[in-house]
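FIELD: query
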Amino acid sequence: MNLKRNIHFLLAAGIMACTLPARADRATSVIGVVSLTNYQAALLVITDSPPEASFLMTTHKWVTEGQGFDDVYLKDKAMHVEILQVDFTNGVVRAKENGVAAFYMPQTTNLVGTLAGYGLLLNNADFDDALDLYANLKGRTLLVHPDVKRPPLNLSAAATNMTEAVAFLKKILQERGATIQADGDKFEWIIPAGTTNIVSPAVLSTMLSPKGLPATNAVDALPAGSINFSAVELSQLLAVYQALTTQKWVQDAPPPSGVVNFHNQTSLSKAEALHAFDVLLAWHGFKVVSLDDKSFKLVPLAAEK
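FIELD: result
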């Protein structure tokens, strides 16, 4: 899922997002479609505005037929949205909002009448929309380096299957200055092309301190989309780190500065989520060191305990 990245994050439930064209203060439209032999989806842009919402919120979200999600940004109560059909001939999405029929139309005429021959079409999309699509097609969670540039995108490709679409998106990412690097069978790194000071996943794992994970932790697995950080301070990330390990974060000095953007496009175990956090912290020059079974602290990456 791609958000114009909201600062909200949840641990125990799928996070998700917004809807509706029912009133002037709420609007949903279509800005992208993917129609492949083995994968079909539409990209929605959802805007909630006051007075229905506490503040203006714009959300980008990939959806598939049969999918349901909740608008969690409304003041009165959550609204449940069901995606009934994506019409790939005209880009229209048919849905239900709390059981009431709704139709989401293409935001621009570029999506209408141009779908024939294109398996992938995005208009006025965010760079992160393309990243999320790539992650969905690959079945990977992406760790995006903070120095990666995120230009807006207009894309069209005559891809017919997932393999062709992945190859096209990989080429686009590389043309936009990003390099893709595999990290095990769950993650891929998106890092700036030509960067020489980023260690490889294998080397990084030897630099990080091992941590035990209590078997009694109530959070054993995190569903896809259950972590959603947008410009989240490192101190907030470490608060989640505490929850996953049940260890206390102990810090003598003031919390380090820096922000993190991350969401898990796939389900993650506790250990995998902590690995993702370790990589993100390492890109800010820090690592977690266990003090004992009950506490940890953050230190510069090159430092010892």
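FIELD: remark
The domain at 199-300 is CATH 3.55.50.30 (Phage tail protein beta-alpha-beta fold).
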